[in-house]
Amino acid sequence: MDTTAVLDIGMDALILAAKLAAPVLVTALVVGFIVSLVQSVTQIQEVTLSFVPKAIAAAVALMVAGHWMIAELVTFTNDLFARIPALVGG
User: Which residues cross the membrane (predicted)?
Assistant: First the structure.
């Protein structure tokens, strides 16, 4: 196994991690921004008001995108297993 194969697998894994984290992170970012806007307009500075909607939105994002996330992860794992003979030189 040479250096380029290791770097290729590492880069593919990092890209997959970014793709899998994006739906939850973007959802939490948007909901957090909206809640902070509402807090600044109404001058209500309650900590749970910012945490609970983000947690609920992240859970909804996981339920919506969960099937796609698992399918992407299974595809990546199957591709890695398929590359094993080429990586060991067999």
Answer: 20-39, 51-70
CA-closest candidate to residue 55, choices 17, 23, 24: 24
Burial-class residue 61 by CB neighbours within 10 Å (0-12, 13-18, 19+). buried
* pTM value surpassing 0.85: no
Would you give the distance in Å from CA 28 to the centre of its chain?
Answer: 11
For residue 86, give the amino acid letter.
A
Q: What pLDDT digit, counting tens, does each position of 49-64 carry? A: 888 999 999 999 999 9
Question: Could you give the CA distance from residue 60 to residue 57 in angstroms, rounded to a whole number?
Answer: 5
